[in-house]
Amino acid sequence: MGNILIRNCDIVDTVTEKVNKGSVLICGDTIKGVFENAVSDDELSAALNTRAFKLSDFDGHIDSNKVIDAAGLTLVPGLIDMHVHFRDPGLTEKEDLEHGEAAAAHGGFTTVCAMPNTKPPIDDADKFLDVTKRADAIGLTKVLQVGAMTAGMQGEKLSDMEGMAKAGLKAFSEDGKSVMDTTLFYSAMEKAASLNIPVLSHCEDKALVRGGVMNYGAKSKEFKLPGITNSVENIIAYRDIDIARETGTRLHLCHCSTKESAELLIIAKDMGLPVTGEVCPHHFILCDDDIPSADDANYKMNPPLRSKTDRTALLEAIKEGIFDVISTDHAPHTAEEKSKGFSGSPFGIVGLETSFALSYTYLVKSGLITLPKLIQKMSFNPAKILGLDRGEIREGKIADLTLIDLNKTYKINPDDFKSKGRNTPFGEYEVSGEIEYTIYGGKISYEMLQ
Ligand code: DOR
Ligand code: ZN
Ligand code: ZN
Predict the structure, then answer these.
(1) How far apart are CA 378 and CA 48, in angstroms?
(2) How far apart are the first and last CA of the chain?
(3) Which residues have a catalytic role annotated?
(4) Ligand 1 within 6 A of 331 CB?
(5) Cα 105 to the center of its chain, rounded Å
(6) 178 CA distance to ligand 2 centroid (A)?
(7) Binding site membership of 301 for ligand 1 (Cβ less than 6 Å)
């Protein structure tokens, strides 16, 4: 493996929340130097000298050395998406590990958590190791395969939680649904606590869904479609927080969509409980009023786009630092499956290749939060929750890095996606922030071709 010198960029520090000009030296898979203010040839020569390199080592005469002239670009720690669906094994007509990893790299991600609702679901050590091995062999992003809490995700008995933990698993989740048997869920939470592994909770009271396909409200009435009330999410969010309080399990609430979920998070945090929460771009950018027609299933996901009041509350909670994480819930489906409108299509939209630009445009450019705060939510905080030594640009750390042109404004074009999925409501949206390079373990996993 060679060396890479990233010259003259803006470096985001997720600890001090400052942005400093400088250069970064990568040797093999490791960050060898973070040279603040080293911009001119003289400054950079002096800095490189401290690491036994010369600037001329990067003038093209050594093949294994590469220089990236990053003037005007911004360097952030590799992005981490705590919530994606890669559909592998068994549902690979929607997505597979190759396309999922390529989409992640294209989106600036160096680590993703892949949910276990595959076919069969990932519920034991062998299945966990199979996906992990195949994903590592592709090597474009770290796929942390999440393990189901119940066998076959049937909600009847516990999965091989211990076996998966021993095999190196970082999180449990029953995503796609909740474990509705509260006694069983309580046992799963106790088990997760004893293994010191967090639970990523999809909050949905199955009995209360009543066939709903979109948010309950004026729009569902206009479309004459069954609606999903906020209580469907809130009841389980409260249940899970209360069980985390008693069991001490680290609980992470997935894709919070309601005002009340945000309020529950505030209460849980005020009580000092080990509870964190995530929010997805579609929920803080769109609301049910934005759904153009009951035929357009690119606006159909679970939980659904909520009311304007909910969306405003989510934005306020992001501003106040209530949400720790921005995730995508990247949920690819085939065009054929998504062609059947709100009543006939599956829930879910893709997100990996639009998440950074949408979040930067709607949260940072709009003035709601600073860039370092955004990168905390898209890298530093997920790393902390998952127990990963990632999320900071620091000497000695693994070189997972993302280089972004924040000034580049463009229209989202789903045809550019590397994912198999094209199901997004954000086609034609004008956004700022283009991923130029993604570097995963010191190797360039994505490079924007000029
Ligand atoms: O929209 C969603 N899609 N929500 C889920 O909970 C599951 C996911 C999927 O697997 O397609
Ligand atoms: Zn979910
Ligand atoms: Zn999901």
Answers:
(1) 30
(2) 25
(3) 329
(4) yes
(5) 12
(6) 9
(7) yes
